[in-house]
Each structure stands twice: as structure tokens, then as C-alpha cells.
């Protein structure tokens, strides 16, 4: 029998009593890696109850002790970095180097969580009135929930629970049902680092489990990364039940290319940012807007993309791995076929891609379209595959208007040698994360991940200072002490004038 994935409740790996199981498949072979339980309502309730009990004690733990737990945890994550990456590669199909990057970016957030004493400091002002001082405190919320996607099964959970717990909360994680194994390893190492029982729970399942967590009265805050439809549902439901919610959703990320940019840098970065990770990144560049004479570079871009090939996780020459599932592959193929039917020019077609030795893999080869217009379904929908769309503009102003007209606002970049053009772009563009000669502008964890518009539902973003604000509440104290009422105790000597 395939490995049965446990739940993690109250500090223990627990075998579920559910009658509903899902298969976890290797995307390159369709081999069944594991069977995943859909947690019962009683098991979900037990996870929240364990987190609630642990919160009563954890909130009183001094901030330096919380920071030391994160220091021990990041040391263990570094020690087991490659082991987690191998597990992640089998689970997701990612190439080993891509998986290593997934783990490392998560470790960087854990390192930032170890700085919680500085990040969570309040503010003080003396003498706001005669003899009156005012100061603010940051205090934890309670039980927090994280709902994470398949595409970064190490990084995105590590965006969430380390900072939430460092702030004094406890946490229930519901990882993607498509690749849960890395999350279970993260939980094991967290316990090994010395985390008290109940700080972190892991439950599995689909929409029913998510909905139970969204409405549970003990849950205070919900973090989500995933599709637009799911993000809207989670935000609307969570806020209707008076939860604090941050929901990161879809994207359509543009790279604007000016003709004064370095051509080879543009080509190299466009190829890597569009087909890397099989395009299954919410920050992938899926649209290139070629301004003016930059459109002459299309044949060289086509040649460079044609040289990239997908392959298995342990193939050192593979540019990327398979899509996560057969359903994901079918969706991408549908969008490619739709683009052709709508009149876009398919310069490279990866629909019939095969990989030797892996006939059942969810392969899609590098695909390139030109002549794309905003009305096409290929442009309106997030493809989430190794597909790059080329559009053209006569000026920077026209390119900015095109990007701003798109409903998403996750990430964008501009490649240019002009500082004035770059400044104009970063100022006028209505997108939350901007790269200047950087293709995928994901901020390091001392900043925050700041998607806008339909790419994000909520007020406070992931990691960095905004995440600390999301996982804490601010209490303001106004204090006045009357000197003429002071009483000297047996061990005090007070001299008042």
C-alpha cells in the first residue's frame, strides 16, 4: 500500500480515521506516492482546540525565547535543506535546483522571524500631556490558519507559520492536497527544534476542511495563496465571520522591453522567467510588451526558448519539470488551442512535448505566441504553464496603459538603460511589485510581498513588517501616575518635593 500521510495534531503524527482519501501522484510518472486523508470534522476541531490550548501558554513566553526557537528551526532547515528539496522534487516534479530555491526562500523568512523582538516593538511618547505618557504594545491574536498552494510547498508555508508563531500565536496549516509531503517534513523539523506541542497543526483535505476552518469561532486570522476564485471565497467567507484575512490570488505579469535595453539580458531573463518552474509561479512573466524596435528581437527570443527542454527532477540538463497534474496540463493545452483559434501566431508550440523515459508525464514544452491582443482568452486568463505571450507597443506610455488596464497587479518589470524611463514606469504602473532590469521582483523577507488589485484581497501583506502587523493587534496605553498618592513601602525610599 502507498504511504498514508498523517495529520499533525498536538505535537503528534496522527493517523486519520477518515473514509475519504486522495491520491498523491508523481507528476512525471503518475506513480501513486501517497494516500492523503481528508480530515474529518472532528479532527479539524481537535487541531483548532489543540492550537487554542497551546496559545494560552505560548502568548506568555518571552519574545527572546520565541526568537531562539526560530534560530534552532532555521539551523535544522539548513541542515536538511537538500533532503527537503529531494522530497519536494518527487512531490511536485520540480527540478532539483528549482526545489532547492523553494526551500531556501522559505529559510530566509524563518531567519527574519528570529528577529521578532525588533520587528514587534511598540512605540512610546513621553509627556503627551502634563505627567501623562502614551505607549503602544503589540500582542498576538490567537489561532491563525494558513492555506497554501501546490507550487511552493516549502516556501509559502514558511512565509506563514514561523512569523505567526514568533508573534505569539499558534497555527493550523492546510497544505495543498496535491503535494503535502514537504509540509509534513517542515512540521517534523519544527517539533525537533523544540517547539512546544500544539504550536503547529497540519490538517489535510479539500474545500470542506477549508470551510470548517474559515468559520471556526476560535480562528482569528487566515492566510491564503492560490487561485482568484478560491481567494475571493476565502476572503468573503472569512471576513463575513469577522476574521482577519490576507488572500493572495492570480496574476498576469508583464515585462516591458524598451529598445535601449541589453538585448541578450532581455532574452535570457524572458526565457527563464516565463518557462522556469514550468510557468507555475504567481510571479512568472507571462506577457512581454515589446516597445518600438525591440520587436525585431522576436526571432532570437524564439530560438532561445526552443533550446529549453523539460525533464525529470534529477536531470541536470532539464530546464523545468512537468506540470503538477494531468488536469493542469489539459487546462494549459486548452488555452494554447484557444489562442490559435483566436488568431494569435503560435511561434513555438509545446502541446505535443514528450520526454524520453517518462511517457505519462504532464509535459508541456516552451510555447511562444505573438500577435496577442487584450481581448483574447489566452491573455485574459492566467495560464500557469510554460507559455509566453508577445504584445507590441509604440511607446512607453502605450505600454503602461496596456499593463494598467489588466485587472491583475502582482508583479511587473521593465528592462531599459534609461533611468528616467524606469522611474516613470515605477511611478505610474498600478502593480504592487516592480522590477527594474529584474524579471521576477519577489522582495527579500525584510520587505513584504505586495500584490495589488485582483492579485490580493486584504489589507496587510505577507512576511516583512506587514506580516507582523497582520499577526498582531496593537494595544495603546495612556498612563498617568500621581506623585502625591505614592506610598513608600518597607524597602522603598521616595523623596518627593
Overview of this structure, please?
By secondary structure, this protein is of the alpha/beta class. It folds into two domains: 3-250 and 451-477, Aldehyde Dehydrogenase, Chain A, domain 1 (3-Layer(aba) Sandwich), CATH 3.40.605.10; 253-407 and 411-436, Aldehyde Dehydrogenase, Chain A, domain 2. The protein contains 16 helices and 23 strands. It has helices spanning 41-58, 63-79, 81-92, 96-113, 116-119, 155-166, 181-192, 207-215, 228-240, 263-275, 298-306, 326-341, 377-380, 396-405, 419-428, 464-470; strands spanning 3-4, 7-9, 12-14, 21-25, 32-37, 124-129, 132-140, 143-147, 170-174, 200-202, 219-225, 244-248, 253-257, 285-291, 345-348, 367-370, 387-393, 408-409, 411-415, 433-436, 452-453, 456-457, 472-480. The protein has a seven-stranded mixed sheet with strand order 15-16-17-14-13-19-20, with helices on both faces. Strands 10-9-8-11-12-22 form a six-stranded mixed sheet, with helices on both faces. β9 (170-174), α7 (181-192) and β10 (200-202) form a beta-alpha-beta unit. α10 crosses α11 (298-306). The chain starts with a strand and ends in a 17-residue tail after the last strand. The mean pLDDT is 95.
Features:
methylmalonate-semialdehyde dehydrogenase (acylating, NAD) activity, 16 helices, globular, 497 residues, seven-stranded mixed sheet, Aldehyde Dehydrogenase, Chain A, domain 2, Ald_DH_N, six-stranded mixed sheet, methylmalonate-semialdehyde dehydrogenase (CoA acylating)
